Amino acid sequence: MIKIGIADSLPVVSHGLQSYFQGNSRMEVVASAKNLESLLNFLNNKRCDVLLLDVELDGLSSIRDIKSLLKDFPETKIVLFTNVSEQMYAPTAIKAGVSAYVSKKSELKELEATIAKVTEGKVVFSEAVKRSIEMLSKGKKSERLFKKLSTREIEVLRYLNDGKKNKEVAQILGLDEKTISTYKLRLLAKLNVTNLVDLLKKAKDLDVI
Predict the structure, then answer these.
(1) Among candidate residues 91, 118, 86, the one with its CA nearest the CA of residue 104
(2) Would you say 180 and 169 are in contact if contact means Cβ atoms under 8 Å apart?
(3) What is the dihedral of CA 21, 26, 30, 35, to 10 degrees?
(4) What angle do CA 185, 133, 121 make, to 5 degrees?
(5) Cα–Cα distance between 201 and 194 in angstroms, integer?
(6) What pLDDT score does 34 carry?
(7) At what angle do helices 63-72 and 151-161 cross, to 10 degrees?
């Protein structure tokens, strides 16, 4: 029996997944968490073969937190089940060691099939993600700008795109406001633009956000 953990801040998602897997002969949901604190609590106390994780989970501030989960709980396969842009997170997620990336727009049967595959040691990403990664590795110089951005820079860019100010981004990521300003300057330089409006436009054109 494959033991599944769910980490999602939206109760409707957790309840929906638990309802879907109820009575499944191969898989069972053993725990759910609505934030990072409760997630760590159940991972420390229950065996979990596959964790369905939303990257927007409350308390999860960066891909570094996901790397920590993979390091601290190596027996647990992580499947990112989220609405966050594949183009932005998938390449970094693969590098971090995540086993799969499934959009919340997917059919639950696809999610179920993905869970089965990752327990067999496979790494599962959609064709769209594969094409995106291929584009980033083989594309023109302008398309490869994405690869120059660090994980933290991508995160800062995402929050800026959400309309958040430097101070708000700093609070979310647990950093100094001056540090966020430094990241913004680096982003402007790397994407060869001079202001925030052009920065976000270029990032969107390159499918970074």
Answers:
(1) 86
(2) yes
(3) -60
(4) 120
(5) 12
(6) 96
(7) 130
* pTM, entire model: 0.69
Instruction: Provide the edge-to-edge strand list for the sheet that holds 100-103.
Output: 27-33, 2-7, 50-53, 77-82, 100-103, 124-125
Percent of the chain at pLDDT > 70 equals: 86
Contacts 24+ apart (CB under 8 A), 37-44: 39/5, 39/7, 39/69, 42/5, 43/5, 43/69, 43/72, 43/73, 43/76
**Residues ≥6 apart with Cβ < 8 Å to 55:** 63, 66, 80, 82, 84, 89
* Helices 63-72, 86-96: inter-axial angle, 10-degree rounding: 30
The residues pairing with 3 across neighbouring beta strands, listed in sequence order, are: 28
How would residue 140 be classed by pLDDT, with cut points 50, 70 and 90?
low
pLDDT of residue 142: 46
Tokens, residue 153: 């820079």
